[in-house]
Amino acid sequence: MIEQKQIDKNSLRIIIRPNPAMPWPLLKKIFLFFAGFIFLIALILTYINLYLAIPFYGIELFVLGYALYISALKSSYYEELIITNDEITFSEVKRKNIKTKKFIRDWTYFGFKRATKTQPSVLSIHEKGKKIIVGQWVNEEDRKKLLNLLKTLQIRLV
Question: Which of 3, 50, 57, 143 is deepest in the core (most CB within 10 A)?
């Protein structure tokens, strides 16, 4: 998902985030639904005197909760490009871990390698021999949308 926001007259902020599997409120509803269903099965098993299966349902619920949590956590990662007249700032945000690189706009160019049958396309920032991949968590359609946005901003593409 590509979002663009005009900060001021001379700068643009582009946020690149992966398409989330499901939004967090829906994940909570799914988890609560399965927890209620598993609790209902546990009550039925208790009524039949099958107590040995009940701990395994607790473990199943724990694993489901962990998987949904990791899914929500991975979809909260994003990349941010701030483009001004003088510089390009690239930030990679993974929860509290933020890596920021600043590039001088006149010495920087974006490289684009087209997709092949076995590999997706790659969009990268180049400056003085450094190469940073941009949009590595988004799909092919969003990567092309980002490329077209960079073309409209008149940034050098190679």
Answer: 143
Q: Model confidence over 19-30: pLDDT tens digits?
A: 777 788 888 899
The residue-averaged pLDDT of 107-134 equals 88
**Domain assignment present for 35:** yes
Rounded to 10 degrees, what is the CA torsion of 53, 54, 59, 63? 100
Residue 157 lies in a domain: no
Based on the number of CB atoms within 10 Å of its own CB, is 11 exposed (0-12), middle (13-18) or buried (19 or more)? middle
**Residues 81 and 56 both lie in one domain:** no
| Of 31, 37, 25, residue with least CA distance to 67 | 31
Residues 37-86 have pLDDT tens digits of 988 988 898 888 888 877 888 898 999 999 888 888 877 788 999 998 88
95 conformational bin, left if phi > 0, alpha if psi -120 to 50, beta if neither: left
Clarify whether residues 36 and 82 are in a common domain. no
Cβ–Cβ under 8 Å, residues 79 and 90: yes
What local confidence, expressed as pLDDT, does residue 32 receive? 93
